[in-house]
Design goal:
about 250 residues; alpha/beta; Spore Coat Polysaccharide Biosynthesis Protein SpsA, Chain A; 7-stranded mixed beta sheet; two-stranded antiparallel ribbon; about 20% strand; globular; binds guanosine-5'-triphosphate; binds magnesium ion
Length: about 250
């Protein structure tokens, strides 16, 4: 446990953060990766960051290699090819669990949609919860800059997922997630097969079924700062089927 007194009012007991490794998946995030790593270390210098890059053709990994000479808490997991968000995260989870040095993992996008400013609050909630979600759909949260179709798709997807699976979460497709490693160890990670948004639902569903204590911290999700989205019709299609697959799996 690492005390971080910068986030406490004078004379208050310091907020105690769990020892956390932030996983940043990247595919063609060359222009975002340097500023986001600096922004994270500026706010929470004691965390570790693992960038999980799927051999981005734009040279994202080279930027991370250069930065790792400046920041000793930064490492790069370089994977041979693009396999989707789910596979990238599972690879990162496996390495963190094998390593055993961390109390918690935090997943976040590298494009500033998940702003680092929320980290102190999410980590503070992590002291008393197994899972903390940076949530767009809890009171005080929101989305800025998305076209109408994307807002409607995301809002509908959450309502749909909650209704079909019974998960009592406001933001079932969120990717800004703090997870205790002890809770993650209870899951059969080898059984998690989905990718994209479906992976994010499957992970939360597995955590919920394992009895995890959840908190949702409101965040405003903003459009990516630079570069292109990797969302595709395949990712959306898998997301539409995911709640039904999870519900059926839960029954048998
Ligand atoms: N390692 C790895 N990272 C990925 C892959 N696909 C997406 N990512 C990263 O995962 C995060 C989320 O992907 P985005 O493309 O931003 O998806 P999104 O947030 O749904 O779409 P936008 O809002 O349009 O940006 C970003 O940091 C991506 O670089 C992948 O196949 N492998
Ligand atoms: Mg994004």
């Amino acid at each position: 446990m690492l005390p971080d007194s910068r986030n406490s009012p004078p004379n208050a007991a310091p907020v105690v953060f769990p020892r956390t490794c932030i996983l940043l998946p990247t595919y063609n995030e060359r222009d975002n990766v340097d500023p986001i790593i600096r922004a994270i270390f500026d706010l929470v210098p004691d965390v570790h960051i693992m960038v999980i890059d799927d051999n981005s053709p734009d040279g994202t990994a080279d930027v991370v290699r250069a930065l790792s000479r400046e920041f000793s808490n930064l490492r790069l997991l370089s994977r041979p090819s693009k396999e989707g968000l789910g596979k990238a995260y599972l690879d990162g989870f496996g390495r963190i669990l094998a390593n055993g040095d961390f109390d918690a993992i935090l997943t976040m996008d590298a494009d500033f949609s998940h702003h680092p400013d929320y980290l102190p609050q999410i980590l503070a909630q992590g002291a008393t919860h197994d899972v903390v979600i940076g949530s767009r759909y809890t009171s005080g949260g929101g989305v800025e800059g998305w076209e109408l179709w994307r807002r409607m798709l995301s809002g509908w997807a959450n309502f749909y997922c909650r209704t079909i699976t019974g998960m009592p979460l406001r933001d079932c497709t969120a990717g800004y997630i703090f997870l205790r490693t002890a809770t993650l160890r209870k899951l059969n990670l080898g059984g998690i097969r989905m990718s994209g948004y479906a992976f994010l639902m499957e992970l939360k569903y597995a955590l919920w079924r394992a009895g995890a204590r959840f908190a949702e911290v409101p965040i405003v999700f903003r459009c990516r700062r630079s570069g292109e989205s990797k969302i595709s019709s395949h990712i959306i299609g898998e997301g539409v089927l995911a709640p039904w697959r999870l519900r059926l799996r839960g029954k048998f």
